[in-house]
User: Fold Fcf2 pre-rRNA processing C-terminal domain-containing protein from Amphimedon queenslandica.
Amino acid sequence: MVKTRSTRNKVPGSSPQPMEESAEDKVQEKSDYTAEELASLAFDHIKDKIKDKLDHSLPDILILPGGREGDKKGLDLASRIDPGIDIGGERERGGKDRMFKKDKISLEMTKRQEEIMKKSVITSDFEKKESAPPVLVSRYKLKKMRKAEREKSAGSNWFDMPAPEMTEELKNDLKVLQMRETLDRSHHYKKSDWKKLPKYFQVGRVIEGPGEFYSARIPKKQRKRTIVEELLADQDFKKYQKRKFSELQAKKQALMRRRKKKSFTKT
Assistant:
């Protein structure tokens, strides 16, 4: 019997090799077999079938008969199932130390959690509070709370200027500003319309420009924290205050002399 080599496992460019006899060829050669020989031949036949299947890998798409009526192509079923959910775990292309997609999702989750926690009633100092804040608030209380919030700043027209904490230093500075006309007579100032100290104000600092020379600036040793301290450290201001004080004392003494003379002439 002539045996031919199967073309399925043929490798191009390779020399022909003697083919191993399959189980079917052995059965055709001999007709008289014992039960044990038939069992071994059947086992070899099954082994050959499995080997043939392993040699040819399965395709990505399996075409099955059936489908709609009049559809000759049949059903196309994929061997891999795409759930349509990106579970992450793969590195992005284009770099070594790129962040995992899973890390990005966790960052987004933490950001959302922080935004939600800002609106929550339970905060870090919740245990120190005497009572839990109410969930439902009446309209009267809401109006009161909104009014208190509005009073904290000067409003949107003044860029939400906050009301600073009134200290003794700030009070003295505001009083000095009210009396600026009496402090320096060489300059004319408009009369202040303050009947009481303002609630909303800000104290700023003048920053020297880079074009100014060092001699035009005040040294750091001579700089003071408040306006009152600056006035007390100013020598010209001290001389002016001494002169004004001596003038006032002289006027008082002159008035006292006149009163004494009038009282003496009457008697």
